Every structure is written in structure tokens, then in C-alpha cells.
Amino acid sequence: MKIRAAVLEEFGAPLAVQDVDLAGPEAGEVLVRLHACGVCHTDMYSASGVDPSGYAPCVLGHEGAGVVEEIGEGVTSVVPGDHVVTLFSPQCGECVNCRSGRTNICLAIREQQNLGYLPDGTTRLSRDGEPLRHFMGCSTFAEATVMPEIALAKVDPESPHAANALFACGLSTGLGAAMFRAKVFEGSTAVVFGLGLVGLGAVAGARLMGAERIIAVDLSEDRLKHAEHHGATDLWVGGEGVVDRVLEETGGFGADFTFEATGNVNVMRQAVESARIGWGTVCVTGVAGRGETLDVVPRYLITGRTVMGASFGGVKGREQVPQLVDRYLKGGIDVDALISHRTTLDEINTGFDLMHEQDGIRTVVEYV
Ligand code: CU
Ligand code: ZN
């Protein structure tokens, strides 16, 4: 079928919205009619050409939400009409990692996905008979897409698609880092560095876990205000003095939990150095530049701190994204406050402009 899609034709150029062909789902695959998609830094990073593993042409987008339209042979977990969230981080349930229960990093389709193909090494997208590659296994800057069944989370149909889209990436990453990976405990103190969608998710996650004090750190006053809305108790403008201040205000010990959501390795170091002696947990969620390293004085480790990281917040997508959506529906997370702009597929490049200008938290493309 013909669909409208935003194609990355060449690095550094605006996306080109055009008609492309989408083939029906093969075995184990599902055709999803998209209703909403978030515009994320990862899309911008890939479009810029800075990402060494990027490729063009392809259809970008990975924060999708929509409705199942058609299922391929052997698909049993979703049926047409189901509301789904797309998962760049799938959950096959069968690989050695999934079976271990210890991680959300599924090994099933990584290689082909990273190259822009569906698990069988081909594409369902094409143009004039020429294959067009997928992105992060999702390609959700389009009216419809075909994805592996294991990369779809079925969610409550009561939940609006625009909100669901935020659970496809950034919001779940932050929530999961606090709730599932670091496992914030009741009465604790948490520091969150960087208040984009991921950091704000970590603030909300820490609150849901019962943290008593949530210190939000960012350079932008506007983002600090957002953090307060999502549960931060202390709002600090970032800078060199933050570590000393955390120590000062925690009796010299440091915070029980620190979260880094900037991708800046100097901030990561601050997160390590402001974690509590004895049991402080540091959770890194930001993606650092290629070749950059994190400097840690070993004494910080010997004296009981744990440094960890999380991809997609450690969230097991098929199992836990629906649970997070339920928390939202019960009023636990104000997702709507995180959607700063709504736009159409034709205007998708404005979403990138807003991100460049650091204007707002998340732009969501709505397909009408
Ligand atoms: Cu993303
Ligand atoms: Zn797996």
C-alpha cells in the first residue's frame, strides 16, 4: 500500500515527506496504523550524520503509538484493533537474556535492526521498487509501519495515542531507571541531573517509589519548573558546585540515588561523586559522545557506591510498558504536561527545529 512517510534522504538535510510503498506483514510481523509519534534526540542525531552507525535513505521515527491493522502468519499476541506502543527495545521472551529475567536487553533481532532491516534481513518499505530501510526497527514517522510482533506492547485502549508515544522511549527510560533499574526506595534522597523527558521521567519515577527528597538539577529555569510539577522537592541550577552542595545538604554522606540524563561525561562524574558513601547508586541514562570516557576515582567504588546504566530504563517493553501506561491512567504521571507541541507529519521538521532551540519537552506528531 501507499503511505505518507518522512524520509531521511541525506544527512544534515530536512526530512522529505512523500509517498512510499509499504508491503504487508510477513510471518511474525504486524502492520500498525500509526496515530502519534514523538520526535526524539536519537532521530535528530541520526539525521545529522554524526552517528557513525547511521544510514540513509531511511524512514526515521521510533516513538510510535497506533492500532494493529493486520497480522502476519503465526502472530498470536495481538489482533487487529489492539492499541500498541512501538518498542525499539523488543522483548522476545526466548533469548538467553530474556529468559534470565535479569535484563531488558533482548538479543533476538539486534543485528538486522541496527542495519535497518526487519529480522529476516529485508525491508517492507520501498520506493519505485527499491528497498528503503527501517530505523530502530520502528520507522514511525509514517502513516503505517510493519514491525516484529516482539517489538509491540499492547496497552489499554483508553489511553490516548499521543501520551502512549511518550512511553515508547524517553519517558519510560526515565521512569524505568528509577523504578526498575536503580529501584529507588521509600524515604530516600535522589538527585536527577538533566531535565529533558528522560530526567523528568526519573523525577516522576522516584516520586512514585516514595523518595522523600528529589533534587532536580538543570541549567534551564523552565525545565526546573517542569521538574517541580512532576515531584521534585529541590530545584538547583547546575554547575561546578553541585557535588559540594549535595554533600553539604546530606550530612556529608551524599544522595542515596543519582541519575544522569544529559549525556555529558562531566555531569556523569558529578553524579558519581554526589552518590552516598556506603550504598549510593548512580544510574547513567544519557548517551555520551563517541570515544568519550567516564572518569571515576576508584575510591568512590571501594567505599560502596554502585555505578550502573540502563538502556530504555531497564524496562522490559512488552511486560512493563503496559504497566507504566496504567500508572498514567490512574493519575500517577502527568504525561500531558510533557507534550509541549503537537504537529502534523507534513510539518515534522518543525519538531526538529524546536529541539535545536531546546524549546519544550516533547513534540508529538499526530496522524489524522
Ligand atoms: Cu527516543
Ligand atoms: Zn529476547
Task: Walk me through this protein's architecture.
There is one protein chain. The chain has 368 residues and is of the alpha/beta class. The protein folds into two domains: 2-168 and 334-366, Medium-chain alcohol dehydrogenases, catalytic domain (Quinone Oxidoreductase, Chain A, domain 1); 171-312, 3-Layer(aba) Sandwich (Rossmann fold). It is built from twelve helices and 18 strands. Strands 3, 5, 6, 9, 10, 17 and 18 form a seven-stranded mixed β-sheet that branches. Strands 13-12-11-14-15-16 form a six-stranded parallel β-sheet, sandwiched between helices. α7 (221-230) links the parallel β12 and β13. α5 packs parallel to α6 (197-208). The two termini are 17 Å apart. It binds copper (II) ion and zinc ion. Copper (II) ion is lined by residues 40, 42, 62-63, 169-170.
What distinguishing features does this structure have?
Rossmann fold, 368 residues, Quinone Oxidoreductase, Chain A, domain 1, binds zinc ion, 12 helices, seven-stranded mixed β-sheet, alpha/beta
